[in-house]
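WARN retry 2 of 3 for item q-0093 after timeout on previous attempt; input resubmitted unchanged.
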Amino acid sequence: MRSAVPVLELSLAQAEHFQDFGVNAPLSLRVSAGECVLIEGSDAAQLAAFSDLCSGLVPLRGGNVRFAGRDWSDLPHDYAAALRGRIGRVFATGGWLPFLDAETNILLPQLHHTRGDREELRRTAQALAQDFGLPGLPLGRVDALAVPDLGRAGLVRAFLGEPLLVMLEDPTRGLLASLAPAVLNHAAMTRDRGGAVVWLARSGLAHVDPSFASQRLQLGIEGLVPARQAT
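OK item q-0093 returned
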């Protein structure tokens, strides 16, 4: 039986400096186990700020944000850091440590936040890499990877470790459209095991069947509102 506790819940959350990203209203959102929420935003910075908010990385001046029933603002630093290990994320821009090789970048969140065995994680990551069109885990520095391969590596990192929540910031932008089915498949697998997915996009969600989403929203000056039309 799936938990009645939402995977993610924003209750009139007012984040510091969110007006800089074109968001002036408090944000409310409830994402339950098995859901996929599609949110269209204006730009990469706005999407990243929203993901930071959901991950408990943004100071609040009102309301609250809960993940797995826990209010980020009430958690000790170490506990919050461990809990973030249950969130997979594709970053719209950046998100890589340039002084580490690509394999370590992919494995590091799980090695840091969990007690997973490195070799077991590596085998799982290799299988994910093949699902996303790579021959295996990429080698060498991340700044030496081609942009499409870096995007695929980001998907591997996000879905590694069976996360409870996956935040996808424009996961197929700059990639072949043929990759979208693999992303949707792993998003469906996350939902089937009781997790949830928040799929964020800058300009339309053309690769996502409207029936795949439980909620379709737009993020802007009025906060989170129902999408005006399917895109």
